[in-house]
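Closing statement on the 2-oxoadipic acid sub-project.
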Amino acid sequence: MTSQWQLRALFALRLSQMYGREVPAYTTLVDVSREVNGDVLRAQGADAERLGSISRVTAERHGAIRVGTPQELQQVARIFAALGMYPVGFYDLREAAASAVPVISTAFRPVDSDELARNPFRVFTSMLTPADPRFFDADLRSRLETFLAGRELFPPELLTLADRAATEQELPEEEAERFLRLAVQAFELSPESVDKAWYETLERISAVAADIGGVRSTHINHLTPRVLNIDDLYRRMTERGIEMIDTIQGPPAWKGPDVLLRQTSFRALAEPRAMRTPDGKAVSGALRVRFGEVEARGIALTRKGRALYDDLLGRIDHQACQNPAEDRDHIARAVWERHMPACEQELAAKGLAHFTYRLSPDRPHDGSRPPTSLSELLKENWVYAEPIVYEDFLPRSAAGIFQSNLSGEGSRDNDKEGATYDAAWLSDAIGRDVLDPFALYEQQQNHSIGQIAHQLDLDGPLG
Ligand code: OOG
Ligand code: NI
């Protein structure tokens, strides 16, 4: 029998092998990430594993896919449920991007800390919004919806096997093999020829719309390894002649704790694709639909910490706008140094980040009674705090990644009122709850605090 987490790990591995064959620069990225991680581990020892064991970090990937309709998203949810991955978070990229990115997104990922430790594979999944009149007029909307309704992204056999894995929480070896083969195949780049005129019609609105609704299949568009020093990785990739986008998205490099997520990417090469012209002629074309991305993960922030993060980004924007000659990274670092706590203890004390609390092995064993507040317990060395790693995404970074890999701006009519989508709408459309990431981190933290209270025989909640 192959359990769900094994299916998840195998799926991530095979997807990685497939993507490496299809996009060779990805293999370079994985090699360089491994070199960087090895160097960080040698230089920092156990500290390098503070946000996850090296085996987890080495295997860690996130992928991204894009689909066209709620029905397709529902099917994606069935496939990922087979792998123990559930929709977490709602991202509205339409609002986060300046150019035309007509999608809303969620991320499928494991939610329990044990499952995350086994294999944290996650997939950022976007769905097209044809009902948004800022991008699509009534005629194009209806042509698009008809086109999408007429395609099949996932064969019924794959979905049946997925449902079985989700219900039984495992699959017999032969079925597991079949499931994995069909699942990986569903995310390969299809050799089917592309209707050139239709693709170009959508491309004028948005390259993302064309990528999703201009073809009869979906594909994984990047697969992102995790690296322990993204600044070093950026330098090494550049030295190897791979042209990276000009920024690292997210928090700046600085001496204090890493929070949330830092990401950077490179544009993939145009790949040859068979195309059909309106008069039925086969021509060869090329599409740039895939790219490379890498990320470094930091500590999960609380809602309050996240509000601070968003506020600081706003300050950086403002200062960068006022001082166009100054280097943005430089501005960002100065803002961070001024406003972001310089150590984990302060992040915890101010309620800005999430931690798992555990009993210290060297706590007093002389029969003395422990204090009853968490801060005292920490101070007197009864317990210690381990940071909880951020497992999710950032809408603004995601929009930056989308945008930096598009050729044109596309078009959007901001005079029109946008169609409204939110987490509740998405839950309804997929037919399962889209989970709140903040609530998940909070539960994990509270659970650890509850356990400490229990182990130390303290009654009532810890203050
Ligand atoms: C997704 C872009 C966002 C991330 O890591 O933030 C993303 C896409 O291009 O489909 O992958
Ligand atoms: Ni990504």
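The chain has two domains: 2-300+390-432, 354-387+436-463. With this model delivered, the sub-project is considered complete and its resources will be redirected to Aim 3.
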